[in-house]
Design a protein that fits this description.
The chain is of the alpha+beta class. It has three domains: 160 residues, Phosphorylase Kinase, domain 1, CATH 3.30.200.20; 194 residues, Orthogonal Bundle (Transferase(Phosphotransferase), domain 1); 53 residues. 36% of the residues lie in helices and 12% in strands. It has 14 helices and 14 strands. The strands form five sheets. The protein has a six-stranded mixed beta sheet with strand order 2-6-7-5-4-3, with helices on both faces. Helix 11 packs antiparallel against helix 12. The longest helix is centred in the C-terminal third of the chain and has 26 residues. The chain starts with a strand and ends with a helix. Pfam families: PK_Tyr_Ser-Thr.
């Protein structure tokens, strides 16, 4: 699932020759502040010196820790970007498995020959991710340091290659690919329930670190299952920081920015207003929680139209009803904790609150998942309703709604159901009569559902 862009942004890249040191940030400083006018006018006075430093200033402190690779070295490590070593592809370009001959043992996994195994992302010059996103990823990943965030080893930048400008990134290698692969690729074994909870908790802690654990707040802005990498122990690591942004500062409540992200994961309030906050990430986390719980994609065109959006489909299976048993991934075959599943669903709906202020912080979300993980029983669900049976009724007119229209709809519903109950009491025991009553009750429930939806809107 690719990214969407609601507004076009012009790259402000400058074709200036640069030395083979860390990417020069002073030249491209506007690339990171063209959407943050609050920061662009920040002065360099002593008064501001006590304020949190920007990502640019933090990067300049850590840039020396990244390795500047030569293009020839990365060509050699990937077999000249061999198709056999390609492990991923997207709008940004391609990712290759590489083998570095280095004595630096801290860089990551090693193969039998003692070479360090890495992932090399080679950007497509004509792709969706340009120099601006490449530079953002270098900056943010140089600054962050957390077990649930992917480690950037180095980069390669050349403007005089045979094939034009080249932008590459070198990461630690994640042998178990992405969460997306394991949730939606039927060729992979089903992810166990406890592993799913562990992945959810790791993602929550990674986001919590970005929001609260740094000198500045970082808004990830592109959380989705394909950006959650899994190491050899299925520990999750967030990757792809090309859309990351600094959070609001100086008393501001949000960052105004062009709307970017992935359909199905981006918070509706951010899409509608362009106002980005940490709670935008929380909404995306709620979608990923539902993916882990249900095994369904955030948006799936292969499903019937009413069920294509995961959030819409999941709302029709509320906890506390027998319809909830349709929600958990059927591939789990009942091998999950029913109480924990309800807790995860409840947390997901809190994260998916319409109002950003009503969503929990990622610290709260992490604590909720830790509590859910204590339910160790794998008791499975009640027997789920058969496919083709009537959908759960959605008549909520009597729950907190006191409008005249809602009361009228509720009264009409009670009258219809009472009338049908009398019909059922006087009906013959013959199967045909029972079927007739059942059909009328189903039709009445559907009518009620439609009427209530009209009232609620």
């Amino acid at each position: 699932m690719g990214c969407f862009f609601y507004s076009r942004e012009k790259n402000k890249n400058k074709n200036k020759k640069q030395s083979r040191s860390s990417p020069t940030l002073t030249v491209d400083k506007d690339d990171f502040r063209d959407e943050m006018s609050q920061k662009a006018n920040r002065s360099c006075s002593l008064v501001v010196a006590s304020s949190p430093r920007s990502i640019l200033e933090l990067y300049e402190e850590r840039a020396h820790e990244l390795r500047d690779f030569r293009l020839a070295e990365l060509r050699s490590s990937t077999g000249n970007f061999s198709r056999e070593l390609k492990i991923g592809e997207g709008g940004f370009g391609s990712v290759y498995k590489g083998f570095l001959k280095t004595s630096c043992g801290h860089l990551g996994l090693r193969n039998d020959s003692g070479n360090v195994v890495v992932a090399v992302k080679k950007l497509n010059p004509n792709g969706m991710q340009g120099h601006k996103q490449w530079l953002a990823e270098v900056q943010f990943l140089a600054v962050v340091d957390h077990p649930n965030l992917v480690k950037l080893i180095g980069y390669c930048r050349t403007d005089d290659g045979e094939q034009g400008p080249q932008r590459l990134l070198v990461y630690e290698f994640m042998p178990n690919k992405t969460l997306e692969y394991h949730l939606f690729n039927k060729a992979y074994p089903t992810l166990p329930w406890k592993t799913r909870l562990s992945i959810a908790l790791g993602v929550a802690k990674g986001l919590q670190y970005l929001h609260e654990g740094l000198e500045i707040q970082v808004i990830y802005r592109d959380l989705k299952s394909s950006n959650v990498l899994l190491d050899e122990e299925f520990r999750p690591k967030l990757s792809d920081f090309g859309l990351a942004r600094e959070g609001p500062v100086d008393g501001q409540t949000h960052v105004s920015t062009a709307v970017m992200g992935t359909y199905g994961y981006a918070a509706p309030d951010y899409v509608e207003t362009g106002r980005l906050t940490a709670r935008s990430d929380v909404w995306s986390f709620g979608v990923v929680l539902l993916e882990l719980l249900t095994g369904h994609r955030a948006f799936d065109r292969s499903r019937p139209r009413p069920d294509q959006k995961l959030v819409d489909w999941a709302r029709r299976h509320p906890a506390g009803t027998r319809w909830f048993s349709r929600l958990p991934d059927p591939r789990l075959a009942g091998r999950y904790s029913h109480r924990a599943a309800q807790d995860v669903a409840a947390l997901a709906w809190r994260c998916l609150a319409d109002r950003a202020g009503e969503r929990p912080s990622m610290a709260e979300a992490a604590r909720a998942l830790e509590r859910a993980a204590r339910h160790g029983e794998l008791d499975g669900p009640p027997e789920p309703p058969e496919e083709g049976s009537p959908p759960p009724p959605r008549c909520h007119a009597g729950s907190g709604s006191s409008s005249p229209e809602a009361k009228k709809a509720a009264t009409a519903k009670r009258r219809r159901m009472a009338h049908l109950a009398k019909l059922a009491a006087g009906a013959s025991a013959a199967p045909a009569a029972r079927r007739l009553v059942h059909m009328k009750m189903t039709k009445a429930a559907a009518t009620c559902n439609a009427g209530t939806q009209h009232v609620e809107t």
